Automatic annotation (TrEMBL), chains A, B:
This is Response regulator transcription factor. The keyword Phosphoprotein applies. CDD domains: LuxR_C_like. One of its GO terms (biological process) is phosphorelay signal transduction system. Residues 134-199 form the HTH luxR-type domain. GO terms for molecular function: DNA binding. Keywords: DNA-binding, Phosphoprotein. Residues 3-119 form the Response regulatory domain. The modification 4-aspartylphosphate is found at D54. SUPFAM superfamilies: C-terminal effector domain of the bipartite response regulators, CheY-like. SMART domains: HTH_LUXR, REC. It comes from Nonomuraea terrae. It holds the Pfam family GerE. It comes from the Bacteria.
Amino acid sequence: MIRLLLAEDHHLVRGAFVALLGTEPGIEVVGEAGRGDEAVRLAAELRPDVAVLDIDMPVMDGLEAAERLATVAPACRIVIVTGHGRPGYLRRAMEAGVRGFVGKEHPATALAKIIRQVHEGRRYIDPELAADALALRECPLTPRELDTLRAAAGGAPVSRIARALGLSEGTVRNYLSAAVTKLAADNRHAAVRHAKDMGWL
Amino acid sequence: MIRLLLAEDHHLVRGAFVALLGTEPGIEVVGEAGRGDEAVRLAAELRPDVAVLDIDMPVMDGLEAAERLATVAPACRIVIVTGHGRPGYLRRAMEAGVRGFVGKEHPATALAKIIRQVHEGRRYIDPELAADALALRECPLTPRELDTLRAAAGGAPVSRIARALGLSEGTVRNYLSAAVTKLAADNRHAAVRHAKDMGWL
DNA sequence: TTCAGCCGATGACATTTGTCATATCGGGGG
DNA sequence: CCCCCGATATGACAAATGTCATCGGCTGAA
């Protein structure tokens, strides 16, 4: 019997997953969490064999939860489930030692099989998402350029970004200009979007 | 027996819903769709009693599908399911004659009950989302201002927006300026974000 | 009919951004 | 030790953006 921990912020979806997996022989859902930190706490307590983590959760996301689980409950194999296939997610998951990675586009019938496969110590990576990740380039931005871009998300004017980072306005513009150039974007807002899509932000 | 049509773009989630509802006595899932247009086609063909539509779907979203179903299959009662509780969605749904509206945060066990209730001709509105909607202010932007803002999302420069909408650049800037002023934003990008948050985009 | 409000446009102007050259300072690699 | 690179800054200039006044056409409500 595989003891499973399920983390997914949408209660309705989580309940549906429980119904889906509950019918599977050999799988038992022993815990449910709606946030990443809850999942970590429950995993430490329940010692499940496998944890299925959604990425998109409030307070602590599934990737951070996976990273913590690696130290808190190293015996627990992890399957990450994600709605939007941002490249970069997969990379982070791999670095955290995650063994399963599937998109929500994946056929539902395959999930139980994937869980069993991961439980046996094998890996499963959604081929669709793996293909995206292979095309993923290294981030060409320096750390400070990334900071600046991050602060620029949300449409703040240069003056506020400069204040937020404790830099001069000129410096901020230099960084943003460099980022825009490197990403071949029209302006910083497009650059922000691009960086987000590539999983660099 | 309630004949149910299920529309949800994420295959994994859809399959889970089928599992969840499949265990319910008196409910039978007769069709599944991954896009709004598919749902409309299937509803016309299968004549289900109730359709459960996710809002967030590619090509045609759940709200538009609901609007079309009102004419294509008027006997079919509709339950809308939504992940993010953008205000404005509820309003549109009500105008389309939708009888059920639940967030994905809703307890999963309640879904079957809601479907039965809607099938009987009663209504069910998620109290959480209803509260948000009551606090909803009217959108102060004119239709064209909204179009322009929409085209500005993603960081396109004015020149491209103008081309996309077939307007002069001056006009585009006027609209954007008006939108920025009305929303008390620093610039159009902040205005886009604000409008999105309010469910106006 | 008159008036208000939206649509679309133009021109002028101030401000914000984006770009570039250039400078200093520190750290790391050859 | 020297050189390069990243972080930080300044100044200058061009381009994009935001704001405002103003115009004419159209439509719906009073």
